[in-house]
Amino acid sequence: MTTKGQGSTSGQAAVIKAYEEKIKAQVQEAKAKLDLLEAAAREKKAHAEIAAVSGLKAKRESIEAKLQDLRATSDANVSRAKAAIEADVESFKTGVHNVGERIKPHAGAK
After folding, report:
1. Quick check: 86 pLDDT over 80?
2. Does the structure show a pLDDT above 50 at 107?
3. In CA terms, which of 44, 89, 106, 109 is 20 to 30 Å from 10?
4. Which of the 8 DSSP states describes residue 72?
5. How far is CA 7 from the centre of its chain?
6. Buried b (16+ CB within 10 A) or exposed e, 62-81
7. 31-75 per-position pLDDT tens digit
C-alpha cells in the first residue's frame, strides 16, 4: 500500500507541474502585453496607467509566489490553492485588458 501512496504523490506532483506550466504560460502572455502597455503609458506620460501597471506587476509576482507555494501545499488543499491562483490570474488578465483599453482608446472615441 505504501507504493500506491508514493505513486499518488508523484502523480500529484506531475499534475501540479502541468498546472504550473499552464498558469505560467497564461501569465507570460499577459506580462508581454503589460510590458507593451507600460511602454505606451510612459510614452504618453499617463501616470494613472503607469501606477496601474505597477500594481499589476505586484499581482504577477504574487501569482508566481503562490505557484511556488503550491508545490508544498498538502493534497487536501491543492484544489483550494488552484482556485485562488486561477482567480488571481483572471484578475491579472482583466487588469491588463483594462489598462490596454485606457491607453489605446478605440478609434472614433474622443
Report:
1. yes
2. no
3. 89
4. T
5. 30
6. ebeebbeebeebeeeeeeeb
7. 999 999 999 999 989 899 999 999 999 999 999 999 999 988 888
> What are the cell numbers at 65?
509566489
Query: Cell 496601474 identifies what position?
Result: 52
- Of the chain, the end-to-end C-alpha distance in Å amounts to 69
For residue 49, the one-letter residue type is E
Q: Are 41 and 107 in contact (CB under 8 A)?
A: no
Query: How long a stretch of residues is the chain?
Result: 110
Distance of alpha carbon 69 from alpha carbon 80, whole angstroms:
13
44 alpha carbon, distance to own chain's centre:
26
